[in-house]
Task: inverse folding
């Protein structure tokens, strides 16, 4: 499908425009990752389906997005459980995977399974067990010991009416 530029009138293919957008986003991710770009790009090669195969640009872009999100947030979900890890561990495990020269990946589960061994498990609210304990301690110390004394006394309107009447 050919498109026409509204400014200059030149013709170009739709696929060409999509490729340019994908390349632009890949460059943005590379700039965001900085020194870790080479490792993440090498890690994305693990998705080759044969030893000397290639990963398509759109698939590589999806892999780069998810890996950049992992490095940025340092949180992941594996087997229905949420974990938090450190950037050092992510980089170390990705380096180990690249050194093993594995290929044929279909998801990040191999990376997550290794990371989950050392990662901190999170609750549904995104808190670790230590953070939840601390929150509960703070909540207990902030609450008054006896709630009945902390509540304002209730007025007995019937008794007040009898004394006034």
Result:
């Amino acid at each position: 499908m050919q498109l026409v530029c509204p400014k200059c009138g030149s013709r170009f293919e739709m696929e060409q425009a999509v490729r340019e957008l994908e390349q632009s986003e890949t460059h943005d991710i590379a700039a965001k990752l900085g020194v870790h770009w080479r490792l993440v790009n090498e890690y994305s090669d693990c998705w080759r389906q044969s030893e000397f195969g290639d990963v398509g640009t759109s698939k590589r872009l999806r892999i780069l997005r998810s890996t950049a999100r992992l490095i940025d947030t340092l949180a992941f979900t594996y087997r229905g459980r949420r974990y938090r890890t450190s950037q050092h561990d992510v980089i170390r495990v990705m380096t180990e995977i690249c050194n093993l020269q594995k290929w044929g990946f279909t998801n990040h589960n191999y990376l997550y399974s290794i990371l989950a061994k050392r990662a901190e498990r999170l609750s549904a609210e995104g808190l670790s067990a230590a953070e939840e304990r601390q929150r509960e301690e703070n909540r207990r110390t902030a609450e008054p010991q006896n709630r009945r004394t902390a509540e304002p006394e209730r007025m007995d309107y019937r008794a007040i009416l009898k004394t006034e009447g």
